[in-house]
Amino acid sequence: MTIMNSQLGYIGTYTKGESKGIYSFSLNTFEGKITDIKAVATLENPTYLTLSNDKKYLYAVAKEGNSGGLAAFSIRENGDLTPINSQLSEGSSPCHVSVDSKNNYVFSANYHKGSVESHLLNPEDGSVQPVVSSIKHEGSGPDPRQEKPHTHYAGLTPDEKYLAVVELGIDALITYKISENGTLTKVNLLPLKAGSGPRHLTFHPNGKRAYLMTEFSSEVIVLTYHQENGKFIEEQYISTLPEDFNENNQGSAIHITKDGRFVYAGNRGHNSIAVFSVNEETGGLNFVEHTSTEGDWPRDFGIDPSGKYIVASNQESSNLVLFARDEDTGKLTLLQSDIKVPYPVCVKFLEK
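Below the sequence we write its predicted structure tokens.
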């Protein structure tokens, strides 16, 4: 939604302290300033959000007592949210949610359960229907935190033929075929570096490359994607940290610009965003710079629809940070760092 140089965004949070749930904000793209932060939905731990392609609906991970699942909201003209329904089951809530471009399916990844689930969506009102597929992974990894599967991401490939699922607990990228009724069938599994803890994935606009962020080894893995069979092939591993940094760090979010020229990756601990340029011919990455996020534990960030700004969320210092982005070099310039939002996690923009 864009009104008079104003871009609407949403923040998912952990609902501890003063946090109420989902917040919205306005980014003035003319002045380069964030304003109008307000709570738009009361919900327990809506840590990850996704928006439907037609921008009518928002889907959030949700918790209620000892149950977890997904909640659906309709987006009003002014950006406020109206609850539609939720689908919850006993146990931990998911950590990631995504939706297809036609609003037929919604998918979730559950870190604590080590599982991926698919739901159908009601085309008339956007409501989430009961689970169609629920697949629990098996295995473990060498890191003490990999005692069992920990599914961290479930998103569609650009052709929407497959669901790419990132498994932090067993160091794997798993591909599922999606049937018309939303049933998932495993077709491929790519083992990744042992103990790397793969976390999140983003695709190049050309649909042929993908970039995967690892949590434990703090690396970006460059992958080739083959849409004819849903397979991925490793091409490059590149660190997101300075060589002399030896303290605790956990990789977080990864995003690519619309023109496919730059990849950004978050570092929790080093508290920075690593900037990489993309080789147009090979898809490989070259390091550009590190930029401080001016806070503690940057969980996520979002590139605004114009491509001129990045908004980062520092979970533990409860602040958003606004950067201007140089579209030629990819470098970031700090504009605002004192934007208070309690325990922010996920950043999403509503593009009209």
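The first strand starts at residue 2 and ends at 3.
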